[in-house]
């Protein structure tokens, strides 16, 4: 039987010497038996399709967060800046003002306006599945002293920035009653740190809840992304939100207090993550693969901009 060669963007797979396969690409190579080959390819495919970049917009499979993200808080008739600051763990409402230049009088904010609240965007893990990670702010919400807090009640306070189902998934407390002795309850508000596969120009993102009548396109236009090319850019950051209307959250690039877009800092993209994962996997499994691992420093294709 002639050797079979399968070429892909990142590696090639060649069958030789009976039932042994040779895999190479990106500076690494290994010989595998058939049973191990299929498992390895499946893992690689999941990584590539899933897009496990450290700064992925959705945050699925994150490895690190970023120091700053913004939340668009819907200002209702019973809101005030002191209250908004307090539920985000901010001691002084004046810390909000640099991110809200349109607010000229802190004592008067128009109902329906959005107040932009800064918070750190962290890489967190689901309590039930610690290996499943996501990008979110762990907002310290002060619980009622008498108890009786529920996920529904807490979610309502955060004005569609989260919901009861997500709080249930990201917390270990019973859904109908959060223990009063739990201290400050961590509210998960999803966020984005940008995506180097989409653009390095944008590194500061707004978590924007869609309200009645709003769509991804209308939210994008609200922040200056209205041309077809710009809307397509926003779609790239929100692949699951096309067609959504009046519910869900979207991530929009926004300017920092200086009035400039905050560039994305160099991070670990999918190529680097894949390289590190493959190297670790092959080293750990070397004794079980019945093959030889060859790893060299030819990593230019993994580190290109």
UniProtKB/TrEMBL annotation:
GO terms for cellular component: plasma membrane. One of its GO terms (biological process) is innate immune response. Keywords: Cell membrane, Disulfide bond, Membrane, Signal, Transmembrane, Transmembrane helix. Transmembrane segments: none annotated. One of its GO terms (molecular function) is transmembrane receptor protein kinase activity. Its main location: membrane. Residues 206-253 form the LYK3/RLK10-like LysM domain. It is found in: Cell membrane. This is LYK3/RLK10-like LysM domain-containing protein. It comes from Oryza brachyantha.
